[in-house]
Amino acid sequence: MYEMDQYTVSLLHFDSGLTDESDKVWTANGGAVISTTESKFGGNSLYCSARGTQWIETPAHSDFNVGSGDFTVECWVKIPSTENSQNILGQGMFNSGSDYHLGIQLSISSTGKLRAQAGASLKSLLFDINSTTTITDNVWHHIAVIRSGNIVYLAVDGILETPTTVTGSVYLDNSPFRIIKGNNGNVGAIGYYDEFRFSKGIARWTSDFDPNPKVGQALLVV
Question: Does the chain have fewer CB atoms within 10 Å around its N or its C terminus?
Fold first, then answer.
């Protein structure tokens, strides 16, 4: 399992309920539960069984305001089906084609590709990028969006792809940060979630990496 360091502003293992190692308080909505059926690490995971009606959230916090600095947002996911656009995690919402209220969002597109978005302002996007790798049904995948300077990467299973040059700050959205919650047509993804980590002030990887935790690298296997 991952462990806290000075850059970690949120870390959920889902092995002790919704306990966040950063002491943020998360609440479950609509029947999102901790499951003992599946896990990537530790024996438990977060499970959502219904699209659009189940999620967990924590109130807006300045820790999630990354501005123009480096960040890494990551999670392990196991999704039974990627046939529809499905939201995985993020802050804020998408209202229409020209009205974005986004901090950082990760989702799976209708073609099964990982998608990352972030707002530059109330009605403009800083970036909107898709992976080339398909998220395979019923397989655990590590997914991440990483900013290093003016480059944003998507990573699937430790393979960095889609480097995109950006200039500017991520829009400060004062909405709760949610895992699974969908926005309008992009409903929350049914499936299992494990080891969510939000890191501020660090691009944890800028080349291909092994996403499994390693002893002595601000990561820990137990």
Answer: C
DSSP string, 154-205: EEETTEEEEEEE--SPPP---SPEEES--BTTBEEPPEEEEEEEEEES--S-
Beta-bridge mates of residue 119: 125
């998507």: which residue's tokens?
A: 154
Residue positions counted in the chain: 222
Q: How far is it, in rounded angstroms, from Cα 203 to Cα 65?
A: 15
CA distance 41 to 98: 40
Looking at the DSSP assignment, which residues form a beta bridge with residue 12? 20, 196
Give the span between the Cα atoms of 65 and 144, in whole angstroms: 17
Return the SS3 of 63: helix
- For residue 220, the model assigns a pLDDT of 37
What is the residue type of 143?
I
SS3 of the chain: helix, strand, coil, percent, to 5: 0, 50, 50
Please give the pLDDT value at position 219. Answer: 43
203 CA to centre of own chain: 15
Average pLDDT per consecutive 10 residues, the chain (222 residues; last block may be shorter): 94 96 95 92 91 87 96 94 77 64 85 90 89 92 97 97 94 88 60 96 97 57 32
* Residue recorded with tokens 């059926």: 37
75 half-sphere exposure, CB direction, 13 A CA radius: 27
